[in-house]
TrEMBL record, chains A, B:
One of its GO terms (molecular function) is DNA-binding transcription factor activity. Residues 1-145 form the HTH marR-type domain. GO terms for biological process: response to stress. This is MarR family transcriptional regulator.
Amino acid sequence: MKRKPSTEATAAWIRLMRVQSRVLDCVEQDLKRAGFPPLAWYDALLELSRAPSGELRPVELERQMLIPQYSTSRLIDRLVDEGLASRRECKIDKRGQFVEITEAGRELQKRMWSAYSAAIEKYVGSKLSDADAVKLSDLLDRLGCSCGEMKLPPVANVNESTPSR
Amino acid sequence: MKRKPSTEATAAWIRLMRVQSRVLDCVEQDLKRAGFPPLAWYDALLELSRAPSGELRPVELERQMLIPQYSTSRLIDRLVDEGLASRRECKIDKRGQFVEITEAGRELQKRMWSAYSAAIEKYVGSKLSDADAVKLSDLLDRLGCSCGEMKLPPVANVNESTPSR
DNA sequence: TCAAGATTGATGCAGCTGCATCAAATGGGG
DNA sequence: CCCCATTTGATGCAGCTGCATCAATCTTGA
């Protein structure tokens, strides 16, 4: 029960952990310095703004963002507190609800993307050619695809970009 | 002030965030299921066990692990509470102290490496050839090196492996 | 020598995460 | 039709993180 990873694999693992934290930290710091909330807020606002009518069930948001249920619930709380989204009751399923992005939410999402995209360019885009970026994506995809052979365990805060241009 | 990252760079960024969280989560879960503490503990124990006499100044540990000062301080608290390390006063600098790994600490580090290395193999090693692992490391290194042009800001929980084989 | 500044480490507070659990509503089988 | 399992969402609690700050000690320079 004690397989030994090659030193190459171990090195890749360490790089993956270190580099991701560093880069994420840099991007988050840039956003914070620009006066913006955490990336998770952006992710949620983006998903909401993309939804057909600007609203989603919390469950949908949860699945899109790959974060646990309680995390979604509280993130929505904060967005609502800040007037970036609002809760609407769901008439066809009284357990559920809809979360709708507000105008302020849409605006914030757009303003954040401006800073966010600049950060991506600064910390990723400018360091890699497009070809290398593709290669990196491919290698990472091979790790990610079936990492959990389970039923999608809680994972993480991530982002989706809008072409935005 | 609004540079646009290429779609390739953006895709790579997203993969980096998503895959890292998924893989880290998988590894942490495996360790937890085996009854072990978080990876950060392992990292600290490894650094201590590697130190010439099994002891380090908290400041050294902090620099090795790339985590903020207060985080180091509290991590040491927990290790000491669990009998995995002990604090010794530093005679030459009364502000400071030494943290020394205990036998229990050394043992735990070794037992954790067994589970940890198996997880690395399971979630990384088995998915990539050695050549691909090297390529991945290289691409990641290009992102990491100068991410912070500042003075090493607080970064993250990461690990160092011992060949251990 | 002594005061100002730097270094080392701890800690109070607020916010976020994970875990477990709860309540309400739905849906399906007998 | 009713009971029970499932789905949906909220929440109390503990632990961890980041931030700001503090106290103690060391170092430097006038």
